[in-house]
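Hey, sorry to bother you again with one of my protein questions. There's a protein on my desk that I can't quite get my head around. No rush at all, and the record is pasted right below.
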Amino acid sequence: MSDIVVVRDLEKTYEGGVTALRRVSLDIRQGEILALLGPNGAGKTTLISCICGISQPTSGTITVGGHDTIADYRAARALIGLVPQEINLEPFETVMNTVRFSRGLFGKGSDDGLIERVLRQLSLWDKRDAKVMALSGGMKRRVLIAKALSHEPRVLFLDEPTAGVDVELRRDMWDTVARLKGEGVTIILTTHYIEEAEAMADRIGVIAKGDIQLVEDKETLMRRLGQKQMTIELHDTLSEVPAGLERYDLALGEDGHSLIYSYDTQGARTGITKLLSDLAAEGIVLRDIQTRQSSLEDIFVGLVREDAP
């Protein structure tokens, strides 16, 4: 799969000396969904702004579809759709005219058939003649997506697209993103809802303090860094972990009615069989056993915590 966005040694330092990006290099594959995760202030929005030409990098290069974003700005920008965090719409304009105008800004000819398809995809067709000011917050975010799609971009940036919308609208947007991917659109998603990344992304990127910590296939990342946790429910209450079980690094549940054992799913041996045998040798009677796989959120929090000072 070829790369449609290529970032090399990108740095961005603002006036006053604040460095937001530190020699960032990133390859984004054509037709993939890349979820970019990071805490507030990590550099996610700055990176997007540099790729989209809103902010000029201090150094480094960016190409989109082979076009340099500075030397060949118009050609690069024509390939990009951007849905920003902020709702920046003309409140007194209609939905239809708002989306038409965005298409015209990119020098595209009138195509009301395409605009209709976009609005129908986003459940906005019935609102086409409504003024933006009359829409709910979730509907306004749909209009932002329609604007970004109006000129038929090949790369779509979604910067916190579901912030502040309800669960139903969020799931509708997930469906829209999946449909766009099926049409070959490359999607870069930043989100605080890690379940979105886990549900939708092909690859996960983690950024912290202006540095890309990793970019990896989602499934590979979860296999590599994921752990399983086994909760052993006990028949009788324990006040402490027996000395004979200390080598297993067990955690005692708050109520004393359970033991929690974490193990590496990629390890040659999990140690579970020996643990169960040693529990029996200690005279501990089990009531139930449950296992839980680490989520992407667990992995993300662990990575960011490791990078903290």
Summary: The longest strand covers residues 3-13. The chain has two domains: 3-222, 227-293.
